[in-house]
Amino acid sequence: MSALVPLLVGIPLIGAAINLIFGRRKKTQIAVSVVSLATVLVLGAILLVAVDTNGPIAVAIAGWQIPLGIVLYVDVLAALLVVVTAIVLLAVLLFSIGQGAADNDEDTPVSIFYPAYLILGAGIFNAFIAGDLFNLYVGFEILLVASYVLITLGSTESRIRTGVVYIVVSLVSSILFLAAIAMVYGALGTVNMVQISERMAQLPQDVQTILHLMLLLAFAIKAAVFPLSFWLPDSYPTAPAPVTAVFAGLLTKVGVYAIIRTETQLFVDNDLNFVLMMVALATMIVGILGAVAQAELKRILSFTLVSHIGYMIFGLAINTPLAVGATIYYIVHHIIVQTTLFLAVGLIERRAGSTSILKVKGLMRAAPLLAVLYFIPAVNLGGLPPFSGFIGKYALFDAAAQVGTPVMMVLIVGGIATSILTLYALMRAWNLSFWREENDSTETLERIAYLGNAPAAAISTERRTIPRIMTAATAGMVAVTVALTVFAGPLLDVCLRAGERITDGITLVQLQDQGAER
Q: What's the start-to-end Cα distance of the chain, in Å?
């Protein structure tokens, strides 16, 4: 089984190399990309069943014994996120194939898009299975280099401008991360996560706190945690629809994943839970207030993305096995639902020629299927029962209520308010875009005149036909969001087991035994 672990990264990289060789053969690139991601999905599912049944798998690369060499580590959390990531990447890939065929690849040049897309996937998979901080850094850099290419596809002025901001912020985060790795190695003589967790107690508390803050700061930028989220709302909306969907669904979650490892494994005896609680509350409230003030669908979703990162930080700040398990479930939910919403907005943009809720109208009559594809993930993200958004939030609130401190009660109230405002922002967009008739008067808009000055409210493009494959890919993702609700019980059980095992930790002896056995 251990032989499968390196393939999670190797297959996408090999696929990217093949795509570069066949740069002018679109069909070959598409086939290689689909097969690569489908293979990773199957391998991830096999590993998920294996680690959930038999425990984590540790693999030492290039024959170096654990923990001296590069260690790849797959537990339930890593395997689950690999599976979810592969599903998202496959769905968005199909969406992009339809868009490229319909637009003659104006926004996604084939020769570079597919290789960069697979490299992005390889970086994400590598980050999830990294067993040491430096390999985690390598995973971040792989996905960031690919994201630099993808976010500037088309070379329009707006994409280059926002791409520069994204690149600068990402480089700052990477420099902080690399500096933190150097400090950890200087203090502890290792970058292996298991060894770090065992040796951290030897350091004075003030040194632990400095290392802790350095890593948190680097990961918080990548996760778009307030006040370090300023770059996200301007960076994502200008990219092509498939790129925006992948970025929104996955990239910030890699940062959250790194924070999970930091909080539950590396700094068990040096917690910053109160700081994380305040950051979580601010991220939820400020993010959703930003969404309410927007008139452009992609910007609304970008701000809701920021606000819902707050729920994940909230769960980590509670720092109980139940809370960590609920956080993992919420991450899975949010990856799927947020990606689906961005795909639906991509369809709206093609059908209406705009994503401004001040301009789009009459879509209920013109595109009833599109109305359904937007509505289901929208109410899910808003947390209406019985959807997975409600289940995830309820699990988080239940974990906080069991702690029962006044601060927890404040966070629960903040989380409920954020959920209500999320539903308001998304349903306001639904009402204006789908139910407002083409010949409606301007009275409705006059009541929300404050949106007239919202950023990017006037962006317009030509109306285009929607290829069936784009609709099918979005509908497939909507079906997955429904499946999160239908199979919420088994999935939540898996997430709770993952939370328990992460908080239990793993010793170096166990890691070496696992490497020897496999």
A: 7
62 within some domain: no
Nearest to 217 by CA among 250, 183, 248, 189: 183
Q: How confident is the model over 65-100, as pLDDT tens digits?
A: 766 778 899 999 999 999 999 999 999 999 988 887
Cβ-proximal residues to 28 (8 Å cutoff; 6+ apart), any chain: 18, 19, 22
Task: Return the structure tokens found at 115.
Answer: 């290789």
Q: How far apart are CA 137 and CA 191, in angstroms?
A: 11
Beta bridge pairs of residue 59 = 72
pTM score: 0.92
pLDDT in tens, 184-237: 999 998 888 888 988 888 899 999 999 999 999 999 999 999 888 888 887 777
**Nearest one of 270, 287, 313, 274 to 407, comparing CA atoms:** 274
Question: Structural domain of residue 329, as residue ranges?
Answer: 272-486
- Overall domain count for the chain: 1
Asked if residue 365 belongs to a domain, the reply is yes
Residue in the block written with tokens 């600068």: 168
pLDDT at 360: 83
Task: Classify each residue of 146-185 as buried b or exposed e, where b means 16 or more C-beta atoms within 10 Å of its C-beta.
Answer: bbbbbbbbeeeeebeebbeebbebbeebbebbbebbeebe
The reported pLDDT for the residue numbered 518 is 47
- Distance, in Å, from the CA atom of 54 to the CA atom of 41, rounded to the nearest integer, reads 20
Report angle CA 112, 114, 116 to the nearest 5 degrees. Answer: 65
Does a structural domain hold residue 19?
Answer: no
Q: How far out from the chain centre does Cα 19 lie? A: 25
User: How many C-beta atoms lie closer than 10 Å to residue 25's C-beta?
Assistant: 14
125 closest CA partner among 138, 115, 110 = 138
Task: Give the integer Cα–Cα distance in Å for 293 and 39.
Answer: 42
Give dist(CA 239, CA 230) in Å, integer: 17
Cα-Cα-Cα-Cα dihedral sign, residues 110, 112, 115, 117? negative
- For residue 216, being part of any structural domain is answered with no
